[in-house]
């Protein structure tokens, strides 16, 4: 729970604000004014990125304290849980694309974790510079796992004869996630591994 707290708070509130912003966009000019309540939703949700620790602080807490706590036991346990789920379901044809996507993003998160352990300890600036991208990579990995679990449950209901569109919609939405959202994980990994040199290169006077 300690490891997941900054991931859940930081990643989900960042995305929640983005969803509200997209909702304003969908409504066009009326979304920006008071014809629809979406403008109020966007103002209201903005504070979620700030209170209970701003998301930048949450990301720093994730890489600076939670990740290294007890020798990294929490993150290794998370990896083991995902590996177990993959091993138990990798022969399920219906789950195949979701298992593949989960395995790939888990490998990316593991790569980013090892990079932080190797480079963040010797230079704390590297950990700070990577923190937000690492938090988002972690969030995407967690969502890939959750979508795989939901698809497994939905497909079981469909196989049992349910015609409720709720279950088929779940599968389509999960497919959208792995095709259109999950690829962002690769960009986050690339950015976090660039280190802190560029971020720290300018003198304070430049700002």
Write structural notes for this entry:
The protein is mostly helical. It has one domain (4-198). It contains 9 helices and no strands. It has helices spanning 4-26, 29-32, 38-46, 55-66, 73-89, 96-119, 124-159, 165-181, 184-192. The two termini are 38 Å apart.
Would you list the SSEs in sequence order as H and E? HHHHHHHHH
SS element count, helices: 9
Count of structural domains: 1
Q: So what's the overall shape?
A: flat
Cα Rg: 19 Å
Strand tally is 0
In short:
The chain is an all-alpha fold and 207 residues long.
Task: Furnish the topology, listing elements before pairings.
Layout: H1 4-26, H2 29-32, H3 38-46, H4 55-66, H5 73-89, H6 96-119, H7 124-159, H8 165-181, H9 184-192
Helix pairs in contact: 1-3, 1-4, 1-7, 4-7, 5-6, 6-7, 6-9, 7-8, 7-9
């Amino acid at each position: 729970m300690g490891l997941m707290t900054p991931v859940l708070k930081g990643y989900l509130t960042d995305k929640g604000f983005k969803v509200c912003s997209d909702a304003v966009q969908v409504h066009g000019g009326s979304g920006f004014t008071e014809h629809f309540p979406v403008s109020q939703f966007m103002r209201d949700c903005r504070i979620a990125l700030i209170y209970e620790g701003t998301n930048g602080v949450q990301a720093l807490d994730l890489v600076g304290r939670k990740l290294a706590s007890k020798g990294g036991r929490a993150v290794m346990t998370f990896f083991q849980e995902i590996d177990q789920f993959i091993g138990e379901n990798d022969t399920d044809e219906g789950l195949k694309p979701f298992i593949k996507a989960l395995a790939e993003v888990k490998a990316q998160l593991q790569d980013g974790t090892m990079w932080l352990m190797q480079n963040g300890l010797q230079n704390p600036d590297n950990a700070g510079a990577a923190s937000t991208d690492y938090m988002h990579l972690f969030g995407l990995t967690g969502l890939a796992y959750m979508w795989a679990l939901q698809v497994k449950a939905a497909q079981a209901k469909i196989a049992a004869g349910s015609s409720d569109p709720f279950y088929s919609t779940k599968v389509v939405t999960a497919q959208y996630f792995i095709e259109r959202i999950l690829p962002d994980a690769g960009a986050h990994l690339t950015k976090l591994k660039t280190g802190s040199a560029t971020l720290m290169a300018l003198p304070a006077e430049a700002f």
